[in-house]
Amino acid sequence: MLNEGENNQSRASEQRQNKRFEIVRPFQVYDRVTGRSLGTVVNVSVEGLMILGERDIVESAVYQASVSLLVNDQESALSLGIECLWVSDADSDDKQWCGFRIIDISPDDRSLLAEVIEQLG
Question: How many C-beta neighbours within 10 Å does residue 85 have?
Answer without folding.
Answer: 18
